Structures are given as C-alpha cells and as structure tokens.
Amino acid sequence: MSRNRLVRLVGALGLVGVIATYWLGLFVTPNAKLFGSLVRLLYIHPSMAWVAFVAYGMAFCSSLLYLWPRTRHARFDRLAGASAEVGVVFTGLTLVTGSIWGRTTWGVWWTWDPLLTTTALLFVLYLGYLALRRVPGDPEVVARRSAIAALIAFVDVPVVYFSVTWWRSLHQPPTVDLAGRHLYVHGIMAFTLFLSFVSFTLVYAWLTAHRYRLAALSEREEDEGLDLALEERRAEGVLA
Amino acid sequence: MAPAVSLREAVVLSGRFPLLAGASLDIEEGEIAHIRGPNGAGKTSLLRLCAGLLPLHRGAGFVLGHDLSVERRSLRRQVGLLGHQSFLYEELTVGENLRYALRASGADRHRAEPAAARLSLAGRLFDTPVARLSAGQRRRTALAVLVARDPVLWLLDEPHAGLDEEGRQLLDELISGSRSRGRTVVLCSHEHHHAASLADRVILLAGGRVVKEPAGVA
Amino acid sequence: MWHDAFLVAGKDLRIELRSKVALNQVVPFAAVVILLFGLALGPNRAVLSPAAAGLFWVAVLLSSVLATQRSFAVEAADGARDGLRLSGLDPAGIFLGKAAAVAGELIVLEALLSVGVAVLYGLELTGALVLIATCLAATVGLAAVGVTYGAIASGLRIKETLLPLLFLPVAAPVLLGATKAWDEALTGRPGAGAGWLGLLVVFAVIYVAVGIVAFGPLLEEA
Questions:
Q1: What's the structural domain count of chain A?
Q2: Number of domains chain C contains
Q3: For residue A60, how many other CB atoms are within 10 A of its CB?
Q4: Confidence of residue A87 (pLDDT cuts 50, 70, 90)
Q5: Cα atoms in the Cβ-side hemisphere of radius 13 Å centred on B38
Q6: Does residue C17 have a pLDDT over 50?
Q7: Is the Cβ–Cβ distance between B85 and C7 less than 8 Å?
Q8: pLDDT of residue A178
Q9: CA C110 to CA C89: how far, in whole Å?
Q10: pLDDT of A171
Q11: Contact partners, residue A175, CB within 8 Å, separation at least 6
C-alpha cells in the first residue's frame, strides 16, 4: 500500500510541477531578445531530452543487473522494459519539439545537427528494442535477449554521438548552431528551467512505475494461469 | 549409484503451455527405457529436456549428474539425441557431417568412416551431400553421427521411423548392444510391441506426466 | 574457443562454397542496389561520383543483413540449430567462427562491388591502402554486430523484418566512418581518413567483445 501511495505522490508532484512549469513558462517568464516567444520551448525541450537519456540509462543499468547472475530477477527486466518505453515516448517528444524549434528559428524542420541526428538514431534503435520485447516467448528467454539488445543499443550511443559530431564538424562548419545552448539564462527563467527538469523527471518516474506495475500484474496473471494450465494438462492424462 | 536420469515434478513450458506438467521418473545407468504414450503426451519434450535443450521451469532434474536447472551445456556433450529432425547440414556430405560432429564434440574424427560403414553408408554415399539423400539415408546418417560419437546417454525419438528392414535390424542391434557397453537408452516409439521387446522397462506418459510405471516388463 | 571458431568458420565457408548463395544472390543484390542508385540519381557523373563512397557502403550494409540471415538460415535448416547446441561447441567459438565466415564473404563482396562502383560511377580507386584497411575494419564490425543480432533474431518467426530494424541503426557509425574514410582516400587525402579508420577499429573491438560475452546466453534460447 505504501508503495502505491508513493507512486501517487510522485504522480501528483509531477503533475503540479508540469502545470507550474507551463504557467511560469507561458505567462511569467519574459520573451528573449533574440528568439522572442520561442524561448519558451527551452522549458520543455531540454528536460524531455534529459528524461529520455535518464530512461535509457535506467534501462541499461537494469539490463546489466538482469544479466549479472547474482542479481538476476524478473523485476529488473520489467524495469528495463518500462523505462525504455517511457524513454521512447520522450525521445519522440524531444524530436518534435526540436523540429518546431528548428522550423521557427532556422526555417527548416530538420537539420543534421549532431545532437538531433543522434537522438533520431536513438529513437529507431530503441523502437527496435521495444519491437524485440514484444516478440512472444518464454519469459526468461525474452528477458535475456532483450537485456542483451539493450546492452548493444546503449553501448552504441556514445559511438553514434561521437561519430555524428565528428562527421558534422570535419568539413563544413555547422551552418546553424543550436543557439539555445548559448542562451544566457537567469532569474525566473533559470528557475522555470530547473523546475521543468524536476517535474519531467517525476513524470518519468510515475509513468515508469505504472508500466512496471502493469508488467508485474500481467506476469502474476500468467503465473496464476500456469497452475490452471498444469491442471488441464494433467487432466489430459486421466482421460487418456 | 545415481540414476542416469532423475526427474522430480519437472515442469517445462512452451510459452504458457505446459509441455511437461510435473513429470517424475528415474532411469538407471545401463537401462533401456521405453517411453510410451499417446500423441502430445510430452514424449519428445521429455527427451529434449534430458538432452539439455529445454529449460526446466519448475521441479528438479538431474541427467548424468548434471543439474538441469544450471549446467545444461556441459551435459550436452555427453548425450546423443536422434529427433524428428536430423540435425544435419544439407550442403555437406555424409562424411563431412560426421567429421564435423565428431570434431565439435572433441572426439577423434577418424571414427567417421567405421561408423558410416556400420550403417552401410561407406563408399559413394559417404561423399554425397545430405541434400541428395533419401529420407531413409538421412535417418541412417543421423544414426551414424550417434554411433560415431557414442554418447553415454542415447535419446531416441521414434528411431525406427523411415528405416528399411536392414536399418531396423542395425538399430535393434545397437540398442540391445548398448547395455553391455554401459550406455543408457531412452526411446520413444509408437511401435509398442517392438520397442517393449527391446526395453527393460516401459514408462507410460500422458498429459505431460508419468501416469504409470509398470514394473518388470521385459 | 579458437579450435571451435576455426571449425565453425570452416564449416560455414564450405557450405557457402557448395551452395554459393552469397555469390549467386547476395552479390547480385548489391549490384542491383548500386544500379538502382544510379537510376535514382540520374546519369550525371558529377552527381554520382562524389556520392559513390556513401552509396557503396549503403549497398554493403544492406547486403550484410542478407549475409547474416543466410548464416543463420544454414543453422536453422532441419533442426541444425539444436544440433549446434547439442554439439557442445563453445558459444564464443561459434560466434567468432560465424562472424569470421560472414566477414570473409563480405570482403569478397566488397572487392567485387568496388569494381562495379568504379565502372558505373566513373570512379578512380585511389589510396588503395586506406580503402582496403577501411574495408577490413568496417567488415569485422558489421559481421560482429550482425551475427550477434542474427542469434537474437534467429529463433523468432519474424526474423526477416526484425533483424534489419535491430541491426541497421546500430551499424550507422560504420556507415559514417567507412564512407568518410573512403571519401578522403578517393579525393586524394588518404591521411585524413586515419581518424575514421580508428573509429571503425574501436567499433569492431567493442562489438567483437560484446558478441563473445553475449553469445552464450543467446544460444541457450529454446
């Protein structure tokens, strides 16, 4: 029960945080000199990207814990799956908000900026991971191969980032710079930015906890189904 | 002496379906056991479990002293399974398949020729790709792999199927001769009378578990 | 481990020599891809020639998916996959052997394909040393990732669609690195490709190591 209450508390705090972020971001903070009203994307875009990376990191760590024989437990597999799911959602949101930013500042929906390109590759990488998770099979087998796929995917992240950055910087200097990174942030803006990180992280935790609980419940349902299935199977023998 | 195969309430799942639903049995070393049962009773699953190919979901199982829940890989070198499928590489010749299987299990690859000869696969057939063999010849090749490897535990799933009269006789000799060489044989067959005449014991399987173990069937 | 690796690689290559699936199907497939790029981009050599390195490597990447699938189709036929597990071979050895065989096939494919690209796209193959070194490093990396994912997908009924989705994004750095290294070599600056070559080597080392460790647990699948 107390765990349920904790999840609810996290959810409530996250919700309040997101609402506060929106209110501060849309109505309280000032327009920026250079970007005008667009600067408000700053309060959601970086924090979404942050959550995505946290989620993948979490999926990676729990996959490692699952693969390590001494800490092997179904809960780490569930956590990895739940976290990666939320991560993919936030990666998608990061791409969408990044695209909106790109369209309005540079007039293009997409630019081959290293960070954007890495994020896009991450998106498809983890879509593949989720597709693999959905392939039915023996739970332990599914968990093991998913954990290894998560490992392969996460190890690829720095390689992708490094190569893409290098790829973009060697020849032509980047035609557009993600100017947001050099924005001077202060006062209420800094606070809103900070709040957005905290509240999105809480939302992440809340969503992951729910996906985790759902996975645990369906596993328990299967376990209970097993006893029934065993009885049915044995009955075949009696009839025969 | 510990039994060659010992299962206690073994449960094996395929997805959510229990292939084995709490099977318990003991097969002594040097014994020839015939597993009998209707279609879908779990005979093939039982053999695959003993070969270390299927994970044990619940219960306990020991084969040749290996715990099925932890050390299935080390077990596999010591068992030989003749299944519905022949585990052969189509593009390779009979000889190449034999030599590959021998080298993979760390055995002397010069045992390939005598084993092939024993199953009348010497000469031209020895250098023929498996893809060009008839079903019966494939069956003989699969059997030759087993003869060449000569594992401690022989798991035979419908071994007589697809063999001609000569092949059946060879197989029967192999099975009966295994006792004197200290080998354990577990076979499943729908040819009850024939199999029972070879076996020391008949184990009845139904609904994924052992239902009856009539003693003293010889 | 090495004994098993040689055994498996020898077996896979022997099967390929007999069946010639890679030579008769995968190589023509790569040629078709190269031709299609030519059709899509038009007959203008000024367009094709600068893009040649990238198109070449995209063709190699797509072909390596096929080569990997073939490598496991050989095992899946007639229950040989169970045979692989029953043989008691060391999983790391199986991984190295299969990866080596796939890499060997891809190297031959790259050699043939580079001639095709040179002819079709009007390219002069300069900086041969860098070109060859790039091929070797990139191929080892591709084969390692491919065989690892191939093992993940091989037991599944939907492997044909899943393998490319899993494999291609991970292999993206290889595409980048190999394309850039080739670009540098082809435009007469082979020295500048060295850094990219380093990246390819790092990638290959990482995924060979991952494969050696991961293959055991993967092969245990029912």
A1: 1
A2: 1
A3: 20
A4: very high
A5: 9
A6: yes
A7: no
A8: 46
A9: 30
A10: 44
A11: A111
For chain C, what is the radius of gyration of the CA atoms? 18
Work out the minimum CA distance from C104 to partner chain A, whole angstroms: 23
- Calculate how close chain B gets to A229, using CA atoms only, in Å: 7
Phi, psi angle pair for B207, to nearest 5°:
60, 35
Alpha-carbon distance A67 to A61, whole Å?
10
Q: Which domain holds residue C103?
A: 2-219
Of A67, A138, A160, the CB nearest to C222: A138
Residue A74 lies in a domain: yes
- Smallest CA–CA distance from B102 into chain C, residue: C87
Least confident of A180-189, A213-222, C60-69, C94-103: A180-189
Using DSSP bridges, classify how beta strands B153-157 and B79-82 pair: parallel, antiparallel or unpaired. parallel
Whole-number Å distance between alpha carbons of A27 and A37: 10
CB contact at 8 A, C53 and C193 = no
B22 touches chain A (CB under 8 A): yes
The token pair at A127 is: 């879509």
| A179: confidence class by pLDDT, cuts 50, 70, 90 | very low
- Is the alpha carbon torsion for A134, A135, A139, A142 positive or negative? negative
Residues of chain B with pLDDT under 70: 1, 212-218
C57, C173 in Cβ contact below 8 A?
Answer: no
Q: Are residues B15 and B29 in the same domain?
A: yes
Asked whether residue B83 is domain-assigned, the answer is no
